[in-house]
Design brief:
single chain; five-stranded antiparallel beta sheet; 2 helices; 10 strands; disordered N terminus; elongated
């Protein structure tokens, strides 16, 4: 692992440095994993100190960048962790690929409230022949940050994913992950794995037809009052100067 990380720094530092934070051009439902439902969660595997840190990645509909949901990542670090590594990943075979070489991987991240300072170990990564990673300089609780990782053509890596956010003693929600996408070397985004669901419009966000009718009637009445008022003023003026 240490050797791979050393080689990664020499081979791919320029590639990941410019892609750590960017603006995503993905449309709703285009991402390989949208996390709107649990339909594709079986593709995701864990490694390292996930159990020791109590790290969980659970689908939620509370917050989303696109679609109806996202992935909520939380930790419960109660003791000092000796082996500080690990996270969640998807294997190339799950996407019908032999490897991720030459691919571009990206995901959008939103920081949870009161989680500032608890994502120091968080990164988008790829592993296999060589370790590659892109980490955000800062994350926001109000705006989504898109993290991008470009794999060189000779990086025959079989895994892509994200790491445990922190190994600091802490319990709570850390961040949301949405729109995790993989673009192949030809520039084609790997199609959604079946977990896209369009954002639901709740009753709280809509206006009933009855309310629309009342508002329309009030608007018409208001227009008539204004027109009538103008008519009275004009009529009075004509009588005054006639």
């Amino acid at each position: 692992m240490k050797l791979k990380k050393f080689l990664a720094a020499a081979v791919a530092s320029a590639v990941v440095a410019v892609g750590a934070a960017s603006v995503s051009a993905l449309n709703d439902g285009e991402a390989t994993y949208c996390f709107d439902t649990n339909a594709a969660m079986e593709d995701w595997q864990t490694y390292g100190s996930v159990d020791e840190t109590g790290t969980k990645a659970e689908q939620t509909t509370l917050v989303s960048k696109n679609g109806n949901g996202s992935l909520l990542v939380s930790v419960n670090v109660a003791d000092e962790i000796e082996n500080q590594f690990g996270g969640f990943y998807v294997d190339a075979s799950a996407l019908g690929l032999e490897s991720f070489q030459g691919c571009t991987v990206e995901m959008s991240v939103l920081l949870c409230e009161n989680a500032e300072g608890f994502y120091n170990s968080f990164s988008l990564f790829s592993d296999g022949m060589i370790w590659l990673a892109a980490s955000p300089e800062t994350l926001s609780t109000s705006e989504w940050t898109t993290i991008t990782l470009e794999l060189p053509e000779n990086a025959n890596n079989s895994r892509v994913g994200f790491t445990i956010p922190t190994f600091t003693l802490h319990k709570g929600d850390i961040l949301y992950v949405d729109d995790f996408s993989v673009t192949d070397p030809d520039g084609n985004i790997i199609a959604n794995k079946g977990d896209f669901y369009a954002k639901e419009i709740t009753a709280a966000n809509t206006v009933s037809s009855g309310t629309n009718i009342v508002l329309t009637v009030l608007l018409v009445v208001l227009i008539l009052v204004i027109v009538g008022g103008i008519g009275i003023i004009v009529s009075s003026a004509i009588k005054r100067f006639s």
